[in-house]
């Protein structure tokens, strides 16, 4: 059984909003990414969408070294281990910006984590 229609629609809409937002902030986003239909979204990611497959790394149009990650963690409530994995990846890639798309709020300990 695949991902429910409601979850697919939610992920599609979140991704579409993110693409528009990144484009507005001068990140390189193609017209296809912005205008992707729900059917094209399902064709690309399948009907068993894993949130981690939606991971994005985008660069600014005028400075390819200025990049941002967009993470879609699988966990219902994101904890310290996941955040540390993301920050380690960002450090190794020399990326200082990220957007974290969570299902629910971060765990309290994670919210108080030092940088």
Care to describe what's here?
This protein has 115 residues and is an alpha+beta fold. The chain is built from 5 helices and 3 strands. It has a 3-stranded mixed sheet, with no helix packed on it. The N and C termini lie far apart (40 Å). 10% of the residues are buried. The model has no long low-confidence stretch (mean pLDDT 90).
User: How far from one another are the termini?
Assistant: 40 Å
Describe the strand arrangement of the main beta sheet, using strand numbers: 1-2-3
Q: What value does the Rg take, in angstroms? A: 15 Å
Give the helix tally: 5
Number of strands: 3
Largest sheet: 3 strands, mixed
Main attributes of the structure:
3 strands; three-stranded mixed sheet; 115 residues; alpha+beta; single chain
Topology at a glance:
Elements: H1 5-24, H2 31-35, H3 38-45, E1 56-59, E2 67-71, H4 80-93, E3 97-100, H5 108-111
Provide a quick synopsis of the model:
The chain is of the alpha+beta class and 115 residues long. It is built from 5 helices and 3 strands. The chain has a 3-stranded mixed sheet with strand order 1-2-3, with no helix packed on it.
């Amino acid at each position: 059984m695949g991902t429910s229609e409601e979850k697919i629609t939610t992920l599609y809409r979140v991704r579409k909003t993110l693409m528009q937002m990144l484009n507005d902030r001068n990140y390189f986003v193609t017209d296809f990414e912005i205008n992707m239909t729900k059917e094209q979204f399902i064709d690309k990611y399948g009907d068993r969408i894993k949130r981690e497959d939606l991971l994005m790394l985008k660069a600014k149009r005028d400075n390819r070294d200025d990049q941002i990650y967009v993470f879609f963690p699988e966990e219902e409530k994101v904890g310290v281990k996941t955040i540390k994995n993301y920050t380690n990846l960002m450090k190794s890639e020399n990326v200082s910006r990220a957007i974290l798309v969570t299902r629910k709020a971060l765990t309290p300990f994670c919210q108080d984590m030092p940088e």
